Amino acid sequence: MSADRLLSMLLLLQTRGRMSARRLAEELGVSVRTAYRDLERLQATGVPLYAEQGRTGGYQLLDGYRTRLTGLSEREARVLFLAGLPLPAAELGWADEVAATRLKLLAALPEVLREEAARTDAVFHLDAPGWYREVEATPYLRLLVDAVLGRRAVDVRYRRWRAPQEVRRRLHPYGLVLKSGTWYLVAAAGGRPATYRITRILDAALSDERFERPADFVLGAYWSRYLDDFGSRRYTGTATVRLSPRGRERLADNVPPEVVRAFEATATAVGDDGWSEAVIPTESTEHACGELLRLGVDVEVMAPEELRRAMTETVRALTGRYDTPAADAPPRPVPSSSPC
User: 108 Cβ partners below 8 Å, 6+ apart?
Assistant: First the structure.
């Protein structure tokens, strides 16, 4: 028995009125027999459900019965969709509201659904940040939450990649996005929305200016377009590489998914020792060199020559450093000609 299916059935009857078991089964994607069993379970939990026979008959709730999620405060209603995300909710400053909301949601459910929810909660846990990285400090996150919800402009000092690196902006915050444990602010400066990594905000202060978010702006749609555009701008070149069987197994742990997919899509066998050759996208010579060196002896760059030369020079510099016993070795920097 699925608890969420029972709740869906209850809400269907509440919003649509009388429905036949066959119609309920179609809506929920189950067999008619399963729908009858679920209706019996609902009745057993005390839901006032009755059936009418005949061609136009069906099941319906007693007049006036409603299942209500009562007692939610304004802040608790606000965090409703974060009830299953305790860490992000805590970062936003809403940990107490999320805990209270979960309790009230459970209290509003029939007993059988509370039992199912408790069993589900015991076996699922979401840990958003990726491996091998600390959770980033976001001292201005709560201020930005207030700016987004209150539709107030915010003045920021921001550190970006290109020159000038430090810039000042007055932003109209449209929304916040959590991507792989990293928070981003989507905000307009001069009317056009852009994406800002919150850990790169050096200073932030709420202003007295109020703004209205465009009626046609949809945060999820914007983020999807942003990711597509980012991917197209991120990879500016390609490289031909060969991997051993072990290197191919380790590839997903060392490079982004886009690179793995490209390798698998273009891989061809070379020789009789299990090595494969493929074409992968690259961001830059320096970046590709750093990523591919993680694979050690299980990778060989075939092209372009610039990347192959960078790999060679870096390996040669490392060899020279480790040829000398550590106790006697003077400081020996990697040659400046090596981009890695």
Answer: 67, 68, 69, 70
